[in-house]
């Protein structure tokens, strides 16, 4: 090959790479709303939310302005882990409706310009999945190697690997005289991704959903699929990216879909592999570094550490700058596994509305795709229930385990109040009426009694509500390229009260400045000279040089169109 051809080829390659980097996908300017179906809206009054309930609230979601719904699992499931234990990937659990309802949801949502993102749980199934029912019968049936089996002796565990929901990750099956792996509950056996037959079945199932018209997928604990449990490797196994690339090629490759991997172990470096703009893996991942800040190092999520604001600034900024153009960020505070953010980093008492809006401002001004978890747009809060009123398997197992280990009841409850997953799973607070308008029947889990003060009905009518503030944040992302694409620079880096940053895109500049405390904070008003105030969570003020408790401001430079 001549030098000229080589050079031309190199330029062609570089050009293609640049084009890929430059290409804008719909999900890069979108805002996603997560629905936890059993707690969203109950249409048939059995106390459990369902698909028809979601359809009845599409208007509400349209008003908010979101582009896609991430739907937590609605597949057939014994509900040991509220649907993250699937027994049939191509059917809907009767508690949520049926396939016809699902098809209707996909098409109705499309009429509103809203895509449906399905939750794919590919690391494990339910123990009631026909594959597992067969697999556990013998070592030589058709599905025998769809799961992870290890020889051993009853009573002598293969190793001391622990399940995320407590106890050993190994369970003995007498029929096979072997242990199977379960990284979550004993009813969630881990799938064996080393098996090409299993992988092919999964691809077929995903293509079936793509043909139904879904807008993408959220991939549950996807960093676990390459596990090597006997070596103690759970996340980031040696074949992980090989599996993901093959999964991509056989399913959503070159299809205009949003894919987001749940990866608790991600670092900016690995996130660049997962979300490479060449489209070989996912659109983006959920990383949890900012979420993990409130637990003691090397301990479990229940072992609380004091909140460290300076670390929060550093971690969120690191993800903005280090991922940059090499990948794509997702932006979130909340989901169905996490406590309500206003009760964690905000103030759910006197400054609930101010702090809920402030927390929203910080991440909605950043680069990436923002996710809103149902009720976050109302500033819904954590709960403090009696232990008998909790429903989550993880919480109930923890309570039992820690009592047996001799922990004080009060200390266990303090962890549950702060971190329990049911904080996020109480029914959506729609109205002032009975059961917060979620259902006419007693819901599967108690409604947060503060629905009398915090509910969508009241907030829709009130212009300065948390709901309307979120609506404005979403609208601003649609309007300003600098919010979608601008570079990020941290401001006031050493300030212990203020989180502020600047975004720059061409001559457009955006400044976001937030007070994370319940006292006033001084700023330099010169910094915002020639800037227009786009949004603020307080009424207008003369005190430009001072932020009120939890005050948030978003500015744009006035000369940007020169
Ligand atoms: C992560 C999900 O978000 C969580 O709810 C679930 O319990 C585990 N994965 C197991 O599927």
Automatic annotation (TrEMBL):
Keyword Hydrolase tagged: yes
Keywords: Glycosidase, Hydrolase
GO BP: any one term: oligosaccharide catabolic process
Glycosyl hydrolase family 13 catalytic domain boundaries: 34-425
Record's signal peptide: none
Superkingdom field: Bacteria
Pfam families linked to this entry: Alpha-amylase
Record GO terms (molecular function): alpha-amylase activity
PANTHER family named among the record's database cross-references: ALPHA-AMYLASE FAMILY MEMBER (PTHR10357), NEUTRAL AND BASIC AMINO ACID TRANSPORT PROTEIN RBAT (PTHR10357:SF179)
Family in the record: Belongs to the glycosyl hydrolase 13 family.
UniProt-recorded name of the protein: Glucan 1,6-alpha-glucosidase
Gene source species: Anaerocolumna xylanovorans DSM 12503
